[in-house]
Give the backbone structure.
Amino acid sequence: MRQRVVFARILLGSTLALSLVACRQTSGSTETYASQAEVKRGSVSIVVQMAGQVVAVNSLELDFSGTSGRLVDIMVRTGQEVQAGQELMHLDTTSLQRSLREAEADLKAAEAALTTAQEGAGESELSKAEAELSHASYELDAARLELEVAEKAGAEPLREKVADAAYALQVARDELRLKEIGEGQATIRQLEYDRAFFQRVLRDLPANDAQRAEVQKNLADTEKALARARTLREAALEVEREVVEAKQRELDRAREDLDHVLAGTDDPADASRLAYRAAEEAVGTAQARVDALRAGGESGAVEAARTAYEAAQAARGSAQAGLEAATLRAPFDGTAVAIYVAANDTVGPGQKVMFLADFRELRLEAQVTEVDVPKIELGQQVRVSFDMYPGQLFTGRVLDLPRQAINQSGIAYYRVITTLEHGQSTIRLGMYGNARVVIGQRDNVLTIPSAAIRYNPMGETYVDLRKGENSIEERAVEIGMNDGIQVEVVAGLAEGDTVMVPLVAATDPYGRYGIKY
C-alpha cells in the first residue's frame, strides 16, 4: 500500500511539472510576470556588492534631560512629522512649579540681605581690618625674633634635645627595673605559698575525707588569683616597656636631627623660617584688606551676602531649567518614528521616551569584507536596491571608509557609509538593502535585467523568451558579467528579443557569485 502511495505522488508531481513546462512553451501561458524587457546593447558595471541598513543622519532617542515625573500629555503620534522646537510631551509640573516659587522667595531674601549688608558696611569694618593688621604685624615681629634666635643658636638646641631625650630614656628604664623588682611580687609570692600549702594538705588528706572538697575549692581559687596577679604584673611591665621604647625612638630622632645638622644637610632654623614666611603672608593679606576697604571695597559681610545672593540666583535658574525641561521639544525637523511611553506613565531620569529621525537625509551603513574593501574609494558611485521596491534603483556615493575593522565570529568586516537619494519611494529606517559600488564597467554588450535570468535543476541559465503575442518559450543563454541589476548576455539571444521578468527573481542553486571581471 505504501509503495502505491509513493508511486502515485511521483506520478502526480511529474504530471504537474510537465504541465508547467508545456504552459511556458506554448501560447496562453498562465504564469504571471512582473514586466518584460528588450534585449539591447548597453553597459554592465563592475561592482563590489555589499548588504547594508538604512540610517538617518539626524536621529535621536529623546528624554527629559534628567527630569522625572508623571507624563500628562503626548502631543504627537507615531509617524507624525514635527518641526524643530515643537512641543512633543509634557510632564506634571506641580512640584517643579513649587520648587521655582521657593527658589524665587530665597532669591528675594538673599537680595534683601545683600542690600542690608551693603548699607551696614562702613568704618566698623575698616577698624576691624586695621586691628587684624596690627595683630598680624605683632605676630610677624615675634616670628622675626624667633628666627634670629634660631639662626644664632645653631645646633645647640638640638644637642640639648638629645641630652633631654637620653635623660628621659634613662628615667624610663629605671622605672621599668623598679617595676620588675616590686610590681606584684609580694602578692604573687604569698599566692604561690598558699597554693603549695593547699596542695600539701590535699595530698595528706584521705580520699574519703569530708574536708577535701573545701580544700580543693581553696586551691582552685588560689590558682585563679595567682594567674590574675601574674597577668596584672605582666600588663604593668608591658606599659613600662612601651614607655621605654617610645623614649628610645625620641632619642633616636633627636640624634638623627642633630646628625643631619652637623653634616650640613638640614638647617636648624627651617621651622622658624617657615613660621616667619607665614607671618609675612598674613600681614600682606591683612594689609590688602585694609587697602581695599579704604579704597571703597566690599567688607567680608558684604562678600558673604553677595555669595549667598549668587547661589540663590543659580538655584532659581536651576528650578526654571527643570520646569522648562518638563516640556519635551523637537531638537530638529523630523518624524516621530517610535513613542515608548503612554499618558500617566512615570518617566525616570534619562529614560528614553521617543525616537525622532529626519528622513530627508539618509545613509546606508553597509558591511564589506577585507577582500573587497581595497577596491572601494571615497566618492565612488553606489547603486542600492530594496526587496520592498523591486525594479527600482537608488543611487548614492561612498561617504566614509573606516580604517578599523569590526570582528564578527572571527571574520573582519569594514563599515562603509554611503549617501542615499530617495527617488520616488519612501525608504524607511532599518530597511536592509543591497548596495553595489561601481568600480568599472563593460560597454556595448547585450544586456537584460538580472531578474530575468532563471535556473534549471542542473544550474544552467535560461530565460522566458516572448514569441509573438501569446507564446513564450524557454531559451538557454550564456551569461557573462552580472552586477545584480543588469547581466551581460554572451550567447542565446539577439538584440531586439523580448524576455519576461518574473515576479520573484530566481536564485542560483549553486550560490555562484554573479560578478565576472
Notes: The domain at 59-91+331-357 is CATH 2.40.50.100 (OB fold (Dihydrolipoamide Acetyltransferase, E2P)). Confidence is low (pLDDT under 50) at residues 1-28, 513-517. The two ends are 56 Å apart (CA to CA). The CA atoms of residues 20 and 31 lie 9 Å apart.
